Recover the amino acids of this structure.
């Protein structure tokens, strides 16, 4: 797969799809392509519909980079991911995520930063599993999770690395709606249609106002924890 991210304009929405032919690992190439796609959608003023492969949204950050011991590569990857999540959280137009398969960090962070999350019924799982694989959850990621998940589920997923299926993920706050797979297309169309009716200026301003605390905390975490060394 030459391009890990595709971009397709449909009316007032832009469909951004992650597909690296494997598990949509969030390496520098994938993250850079996502930044470029969101920048294009921003210039076009398009509502974004972000999705992954059929069986996996994203396997998260590239663990091979973490285990390589290359501090520069690790910092580059983490900063790209953190800045992307902040970009989604503050995006001027609505962002919808569509999930039909597993979502691990960094994929889960993008879902938590979006405005409307649609999940398909299935056996897939989502969560923040860093502590299960020997990683300390970055501060920016904790702040992204904190602003969206219920307090009890925030503690469970961040501190114990518990993963959840679609229905419990909706209870936790990872998803807004869960639909049978054959109803997914209509659920996405209905969400786009509803969000198209929003006043664009009011939506953008209210989003920044409502998330001001989280935005400031995430910005601080990025600047302090992921600054170039």
């Amino acid at each position: 797969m030459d391009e890990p991210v595709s971009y397709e304009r449909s009316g007032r929405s832009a469909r951004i799809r992650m597909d690296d032919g494997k598990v949509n690992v969030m390496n520098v190439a994938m993250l850079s392509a996502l930044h470029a796609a969101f920048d294009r959608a921003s210039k076009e003023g398009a509502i974004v519909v972000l999705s992954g492969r059929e069986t996996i949204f994203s396997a998260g950050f590239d663990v091979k980079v973490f285990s390589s011991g290359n501090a520069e590569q690790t910092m580059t990857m983490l900063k790209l991911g953190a800045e992307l999540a902040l970009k989604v959280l503050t995006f001027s137009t609505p962002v919808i995520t569509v999930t039909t398969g597993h979502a691990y960090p960094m994929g889960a962070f993008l879902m938590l930063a979006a405005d409307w999350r649609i999940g398909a019924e299935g056996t897939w799982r989502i969560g923040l599993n860093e502590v299960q694989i020997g990683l300390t959850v970055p501060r920016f990621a904790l702040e992204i999770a904190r602003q969206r998940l219920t307090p009890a589920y925030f503690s469970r997923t961040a501190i114990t690395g518990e993963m959840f299926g679609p229905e419990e993920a909706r209870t936790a706050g990872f998803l807004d709606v869960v639909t049978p797979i054959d109803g997914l297309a209509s659920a996405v169309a209905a969400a786009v249609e509803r969000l198209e009716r929003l006043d664009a200026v009011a939506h953008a301003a209210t989003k920044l106002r409502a998330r001001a605390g989280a935005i400031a905390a995430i910005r601080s975490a990025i600047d302090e924890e992921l600054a170039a060394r």
Q: What stands out?
A: Residues 5-225 form a domain with the 2-enoyl-CoA Hydratase; Chain A, domain 1 fold (CATH 3.90.226.10). The chain has one domain: 5-225.
